[in-house]
């Protein structure tokens, strides 16, 4: 049976202003517009799917011709006859100021006297001012959807989906008041997936892959209770294995599906990656200086570098006090750099309807209450890359089939809560075999959790040195032979066979490390681990992997990691810019207009959000080289721009702040001139 893949590209144009909110749903406070990773408005796929479900209900009441197809298209059940992947709508072009703020107030209302209307007061009611951020009419968005089904029924499903999309003519808030009207243009492309596995000769037993999420990725850490749901910033081997198995099954690759389910193919943990380089969880021995020094001088007043990290294995007890890293830090062993994987916060709230209001009754007579409990969830921003390794030592043909399937790039990998679509690509990594130097101590770092049960108690070990002593009995580590940093973690999960949560299992956390100073025992451990990919239990799920090194684990922040300015740095930047303006006595007489400074600020914001930003020096150089009338004013302050470029140090964020400072200075100067006149 042939499987057809249909790619649906939808261009959405706003005919009216649109407000999709930020997830609060209460309408009681200022509501801003939700943004994507590029700080541009976005229409999330969850909202679109909700509109499609509502549209299907309305259409079925009028004509149930497509009811069966609607149920299959909008169902998340594995028994569905088709699979539809809905993508969010992102702006097709980056534009400055794509939104504007609309404000409104309630009225004082009607007052009564003796049962009759006494006065109708239209004055604004105190404390009722609300602001809402709307996307401007005329904005254009694009989305890519994908539909997978049998070739025989593909035409019917595509026709039903087209009917659904065309029925959605309004989105966002205040749809009944004329807001959010849209026009959708649909184009489709059809591809038949190959039924047979034709593979070239491939003797490799492992495959490195990169997973790139096309939508915000939710990997909830459900161990922590509360209305803030944190996320893991890595993809566990078990989660990735299940997603890959489902990915193969949907494309009709039964042999690959069975190999993954039966653990013939091992899947490692997938950690955030940059530029195709493999990162590991930051070793626990890497620490940062404490945020305060001895005495009353704050850390930001001492001109100390905030990106210096030390190896606690190599530090003496008399060194600067250190503290553990807090956050989602990952380490690159070759370049010895760190970066922190950021997360975004998405707020969620249940939609309020007329059936969820106080005073209403259910069929059984119970009250229906307004469930407006707000909760927030952490998500991993879109276009984040993760790197993992698939290996199979018994059948290299399976790795060859996986390589070919990934190269086709036909169907996205569905991952995490909500099945976020992800793109799969292959990567190459030059591996250097570890060679032991018998003059240096050995450091072993866990790059994934380690599960090792005690032979005596049957309970998992929580200390790395205890697990190593059992796995390698000849080692017989004593306290004087090593220094270790160990931490515990909990493995949880959900069994779809039983419908119950899995029993939590205690493991030694990734990043735990041990430094063996006894050279003989270090050599013994290196010989034991040299020919092993992993140790302990559940190795096919990525557990028990490690890194061996004899270098000090020092680190610096990744050069591409642009941290936000702290409050003190912002104050210092503003002070420097104001001094620059005050030192130029004729600045206000020669300065370009407010409009020109505002245009420069918008250009800098666009460059900051761009994937390939223009260097700041080029932007300032273009201002003074263009000789037309609108740019001529920049020539008169060429020296000021040169000093400003030096202050900003080729960073766009300080340059945007500088434009704001100049705009404020120009406004204050105009006000002062008006008072004198």
UniProtKB/TrEMBL annotation:
Residues 12-183 form the CRISPR type III-associated protein domain. One of its GO terms (biological process) is defense response to virus. It comes from Pseudoalteromonas piscicida. This is CRISPR type III-associated protein domain-containing protein. Keywords: Antiviral defense. Transmembrane segments: none annotated. InterPro entries: CRISPR_Csm3_endoribonuclease, RAMP_III_fam. Pfam families: RAMPs.
């Amino acid at each position: 049976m042939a499987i057809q893949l249909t790619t649906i590209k939808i261009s959405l144009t706003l005919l009216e202003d649109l407000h999709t909110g930020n997830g609060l749903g209460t309408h009681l406070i200022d509501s801003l517009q939700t943004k994507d990773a590029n700080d541009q408005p976005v229409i999330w796929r969850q909202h679109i799917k909700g509109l499609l479900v509502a549209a299907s209900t309305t259409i079925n009441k009028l004509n149930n011709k497509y009811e069966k197809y609607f149920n299959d298209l909008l169902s998340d059940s594995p028994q569905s006859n088709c699979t539809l992947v809905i993508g969010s709508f992102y702006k097709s072009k980056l534009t400055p100021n794509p939104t504007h703020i609309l404000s409104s107030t309630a009225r004082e209302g009607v007052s009564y006297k003796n049962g009759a209307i006494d006065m109708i007061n239209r004055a604004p009611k105190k404390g009722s001012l609300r602001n809402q951020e709307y996307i401007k009419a005329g904005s254009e968005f694009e989305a890519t959807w994908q539909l997978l089904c049998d070739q025989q029924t593909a035409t019917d499903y595509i026709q039903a989906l087209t009917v659904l999309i065309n029925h959605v003519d309004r989105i966002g808030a205040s749809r009944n008041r004329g807001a959010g009207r849209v026009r959708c243009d649909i184009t489709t492309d059809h591809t038949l997936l190959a039924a047979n596995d034709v593979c070239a000769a491939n003797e490799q037993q492992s495959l490195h892959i990169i997973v790139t999420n096309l939508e915000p990725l939710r990997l909830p850490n459900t161990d922590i209770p509360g209305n803030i749901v944190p996320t893991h910033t890595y993809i566990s081997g078990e989660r990735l294995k299940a997603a890959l198995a489902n990915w193969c099954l949907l494309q009709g690759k039964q042999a690959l599906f069975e190999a993954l389910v039966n653990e013939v193919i091992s899947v490692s943990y997938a950690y955030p990656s940059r530029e195709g380089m493999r990162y590991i969880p930051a070793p626990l021995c890497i620490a940062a200086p404490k945020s305060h020094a001895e005495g009353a001088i704050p850390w930001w007043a001492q001109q100390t570098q905030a990106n210096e990290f030390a190896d606690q294995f190599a530090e003496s007890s008399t060194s600067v006090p250190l503290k553990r890293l807090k956050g989602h830090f990952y380490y690159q062993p070759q370049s010895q750099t760190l970066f922190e994987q950021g997360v975004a916060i998405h707020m969620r709230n249940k939609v309020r309807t007329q059936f969820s209001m106080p005073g209403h009754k259910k069929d059984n007579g119970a009250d229906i209450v307004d469930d407006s409990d707000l909760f927030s969830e952490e998500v991993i921003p879109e276009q984040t890359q993760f790197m993992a390794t698939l290996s199979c030592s018994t059948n290299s043909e399976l790795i060859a089939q996986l390589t070919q399937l990934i190269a086709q790039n036909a169907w996205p990998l569905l991952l995490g809560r909500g099945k976020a679509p992800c793109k799969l690509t292959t990567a190459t990594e030059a591996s250097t075999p570890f060679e032991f130097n018998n003059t240096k101590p050995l450091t072993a770092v866990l790059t994934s959790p380690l599960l090792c049960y005690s032979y005596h108690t049957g309970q998992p070990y929580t200390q790395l040195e205890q697990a190593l002593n059992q796995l390698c009995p000849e080692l017989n580590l004593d306290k004087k032979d090593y220094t270790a940093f160990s931490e515990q973690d909990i493995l949880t999960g959900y069994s779809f066979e039983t419908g119950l949560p899995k029993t939590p299992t205690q493991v030694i956390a990734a990043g735990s490390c041990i430094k063996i100073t006894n050279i003989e025992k270090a050599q013994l451990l290196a010989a034991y681990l040299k020919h092993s990919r992993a140790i302990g239990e559940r190795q096919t799920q990525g557990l028990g992997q490690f890194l061996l090194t004899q270098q000090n684990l020092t680190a610096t922040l990744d050069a591409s990691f642009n941290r936000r300015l702290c409050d003190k740095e912002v104050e210092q930047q503003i002070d420097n810019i104001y001094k620059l303006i005050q030192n130029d006595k004729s600045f206000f007489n020669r300065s370009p207009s407010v409009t020109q400074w505002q245009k420069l600020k918008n250009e800098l914001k666009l460059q900051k959000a761009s994937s390939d930003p223009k260097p700041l020096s080029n932007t300032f150089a273009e201002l003074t080289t263009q000789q037309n009338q609108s740019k001529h004013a920049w020539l008169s302050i060429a020296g000021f721009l040169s000093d400003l470029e030096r202050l900003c140090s080729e960073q766009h964020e300080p340059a945007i702040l500088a434009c704001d400072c100049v705009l404020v200075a120009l406004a204050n100067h105009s006000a002062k001139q008006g008072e004198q006149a």
